[in-house]
Design goal:
Blueprint (H helix, E strand, L loop, with lengths): L1 E5 L5 E4 H8 L5 E4 L4 E2 L8 E5 L14 E5 L3 E6 L3 H8 L5 E4 L10 H10 L6 H11 L2 E8 L4 E8 L4 H22 L1 H7 L3 H9 L7
Parallel strand pairs: 1-9
Antiparallel strand pairs: 2-7, 3-4, 3-5, 6-7, 8-10, 9-10
Length: about 210
């Protein structure tokens, strides 16, 4: 199941010792949403910061908008109007982008995208695919979300260790949903037949429809 990280309410806690090492290293590093510091950024991992610390500014070493509260054990990092910066950090490594206005258009992973592209020929949507993955695969959604007025903009990430499993599970899910669609619409499909695109989709999923 996916975890949700909402930048309007959530914060990241980092080890005080590790944070001090990173900002004084004079090296580029990333801070993930689960509080890990990586000097080599990982694919399929959401980050709240990427770059070098600015030690000339002791109050805001990560830059304007990052609020830092330190104890002897942890550093808590919260955020203020820096969503655009976080978008730029994560856009190229996220599995998909999601917004209340535009929805979900595609998957970054080519194999997932092939599955989705063939699935939409049978009235399935990327929302269907993402809701299935978010319930059945380990991952993270990072977002800004509020209830009134409703607003949602986010990115989805699948754990690297579960990427292959996500392809297998989504393939089987879409294949099963297509079978259900054909059964429910058998009379109409018998009358009008399948489109060329639908026939190609069935071939992709290894199915032959007797229509």
């Amino acid at each position: 199941m996916f975890k949700k990280f909402n930048f309007l309410v959530d914060e990241v806690k980092v080890s005080n010792v590790e944070f001090a090492k990173a900002i004084n290293s004079n090296r580029e590093f990333g801070i993930s949403t689960n509080g890990e510091i990586h000097f080599d950024l990982k694919q399929n991992t959401p980050y709240i910061f990427s770059g070098k610390a600015n030690m000339m500014n002791k109050l805001e070493p990560l830059g304007k908008g990052y609020k830092i509260k330190a104890t002897f054990v942890t550093v808590s990092i919260s955020f203020n109007n820096i969503w655009n910066r976080i978008i730029e950090i994560n856009r190229n490594s996220a599995m998909y982008e999601d917004s209340a206005s535009d929805g979900i258009a595609e998957f970054q992973d080519k194999q997932l995208e092939q599955i989705g592209w063939h699935g939409v020929e049978f009235k399935l949507t990327y929302r269907d695919f993402v809701e299935f993955l978010e319930k059945n695969i380990t991952g993270t959604v990072i977002c800004i979300e509020q209830d009134s007025p409703y607003m949602f903009n986010g990115f989805g990430f699948i754990e690297e260790s579960e990427l292959e499993e996500s392809r297998t599970k989504l393939f089987q899910f879409v294949k099963s949903e297509i079978k259900k669609y054909i059964e429910l619409n058998s009379d109409e499909l018998s009358k009008y037949g399948l489109s060329i695109e639908q026939k190609e989709s069935l071939e992709f999923f290894g199915e032959v429809a007797n229509i």
